[in-house]
Amino acid sequence: MDAAISRQLVDKIYEKRKAAALDLEKQIRECHQQGEQKRINQIIDQLVEMFSQTSNPLHIRNGGLIGLAGTAIALGVDIASYMDKFINPLLSCFIDSENRIRYFSAECLYNIAKVSKGEVLVYFNDIFDALSKLAADSELSVKNGAELLDRLLKDIVAESASVYIPMYPETAKARNEKDAQSSVLVDLTTSSEEGPKKAFSLAHFIPLLRERIYVVSPFTRSYLVSWITVLDSVPELELITYLPEFLDGLLKYLSDPTEDVRVATENLLADFLREIHDVTIVSRQFEHHAHAKEKYRSSSTLAHRHDPESGQEGESDQKSHQGSEPAVNHDITSELDDQDIGSWVPGQGVKIDFPSIVDILLQQLDGEHDEIQQSTALRWLAEFVSFAPEVMVPFTPRLIPAILPNLAHHVSMIQNAANRTNKFLFNVIQNLPIAQEAVPSPGASVLSVHSQGGANLQLQPQEEAADPFDYQAAVNELTIQFISEFEETRVSALKWLIMLHQKVPKKILAMDDGTFPALLKTLSDSSEEVIKHDLQLLAQISSSSEENYFKAFMMNLLELFSTDRRLLETRGSLIIRQLCVNLNTEKIYKTFAEILEKEDDLEFASVIVQKLNIILTTSPELAEFRRRLKSLENRQDGQALFTTLYRCWCHNAVSVFSLCLLAQAYEHASNLLYIFAELEITVPMLVQVDKLVQLIESPVFTYLRLQLLEPERYPYLFKCLYGLLMLLPQSSAFVSLRNRLNAVNSAGFLQVSPKM
């Protein structure tokens, strides 16, 4: 540069440096007009030397920066030819220890970007990275200067990033070199066709964003969120395609201590979710249209094939059908083709990487992330299930262990989100069509028609359809939830299994698949609600299985009671009653009786028979069963039932006596009393007799008490009750039964003789 300009440009007084920069601007403009590129190169080298040497005094470095800004203004967009010379040294000044150097370097780049427009996008990654550091600068003036440059770059990106192609060989070369020097993702966008490379490359930028997204500074986070928002606002860039690359880091911003960062992130994530929804809907519409078009074309092809009645095909067939039908077909085809021609629809052709996004969302639910991240992840999953169920169905086995444990989360926000997600997913799977056993082979017709000898139908080879939902994997995950500490989780797992078994009873939950022991063990659960659902599932499996399954189930249940007496004592009645609600009561009692009749452990057999008898006598669920036992004289099947129970009930003396009273076999009951006299009358036996007397005073035996008014019809009833009275010691039960019998005596019923 001219010597006078050079001296004045390094003057200590700012006004003189500014005037020198204006003079340099004129000189550069003249050189440019005269084509003196060599001299311009020398001047730029001289300016770079001035501001890049940290040993130079501050006024010299500032002079170099203001001189470079003037040079850019003089050259206009042609500054792009020289950018490779100074862009890196200039960006190095962004991290200089001197505030004024950082400020003037940002101001210099602002002027360069303003005149170079889209050309500066070739160096976007370098500028973006340098600016991210200035966004957190401690000096307010530097931060303000950086914000001006940042806004200008955003305007350029929004206006040009999707279309601008470098116009200068130097910048085009720099663009290619940057792709070769740094990591570049595969371009997944719809605009990735071959041709001249654009100045801005999203595939080149995303690796940098993926690296920087994990910063902790709230200022830098705000900077990144603002840029992601800008890039997402340019539809042609299709930033949503690369969402998995930075979603994990972005979700962490939701728990940032700064409210501005949290709010901006929430808004950005809401925009992404809305965009995924829109893209999914648009994709589905295009798929339906393509399917309809293909279906119509296939049907048209079939319609123009060989006609079996005429025995003609090819051209003769087409000629015979000339007329209105081809015209109609042509119109429909044209209409379908016309639907392919039209304005571009936002979201058209955009790819959403659901598997990777779901992976990231599931990672947020491992319990180590903040509550806001967990609730947001669940909310996203719920939305995905809502608007893209066909995409989410294969993920169900992985979603179950992520959702169900959160149904009882102590934070209501997470609990509500988990319940909503679980409800949506449950309904989707419940309404999922069951895959057919077989489908036609691809490209093969199911029916083949032959013209000679009439129409011969031949089935072509078929193959099994692939089911998008892995039932067995889902069952395995649900079974694991049985050990959850939360009742809500265990209940929900059982509800899922009940629903799945209702859908495909032949596919899952067989007795030998390992699930059966887990279901049996769950009967020892501390929650009554869990036990009820477990029994419902076991009963459901039994109902849809072969007879040997049911008997094996009863045997395993009795074995469980035998080994876990506490379960029998605390939950035995509940378990047996619930089984009677869900299965055939007679079948249950007959199977129990047949098994227990051969039981070697007589003490256990006595205890379980006593339990079964009390349930039989008192439970409202068994009212119909009791009525059947009362009609022994009229029904042979009732007699057979009584006989089966009687043989088993003999394990417990009081229970078999109670069974006879219930079945109105009073004569036999009275005979049993003589046998009782030969037994050792123990305290447990007397306690049972005491309970039986209490039962006689209950509503269940109302019919028996009324029969005391007809001694001529039921003479052995009195013998039974008086015999029972003789067994009892002087106790409250003795007094109660004596008072009942005395009431009958005092009324004179025992003295009444039948009239002749």
Automatic annotation (TrEMBL):
Which Gene3D superfamilies does this entry report, sorted A to Z?
Leucine-rich Repeat Variant (1.25.10.10)
Q: What is its main location?
A: membrane
Q: Which Pfam families match?
A: Vac14_Fab1_bd, Vac14_Fig4_bd
Q: Which GO terms describe its biological process?
A: phosphatidylinositol biosynthetic process
Q: Where is this region: Disordered?
A: 293-328
Q: Where in the cell is it found?
A: Endomembrane system
Q: Which GO terms describe its cellular component?
A: endosome membrane; fungal-type vacuole membrane; PAS complex
Location of the Vacuolar protein 14 C-terminal Fig4-binding domain: 566-744
Protein's UniProt keywords contain Repeat: yes
The record's InterPro entries line, in alphabetical order, gives:
ARM-like, ARM-type_fold, Vac14, VAC14_Fig4p-bd
Q: Which residues form a coiled coil?
A: none
Q: From what superkingdom does this record's organism come? A: Eukaryota
Keyword annotations: Membrane, Repeat
What family, per the record?
Belongs to the VAC14 family.
PANTHER family registered for this protein in UniProt: PROTEIN VAC14 HOMOLOG, TAX1 BINDING PROTEIN-RELATED
What protein am I looking at?
Vacuolar protein 14 C-terminal Fig4-binding domain-containing protein
Q: What is the lineage of its organism?
A: Eukaryota, Fungi, Dikarya, Basidiomycota, Agaricomycotina
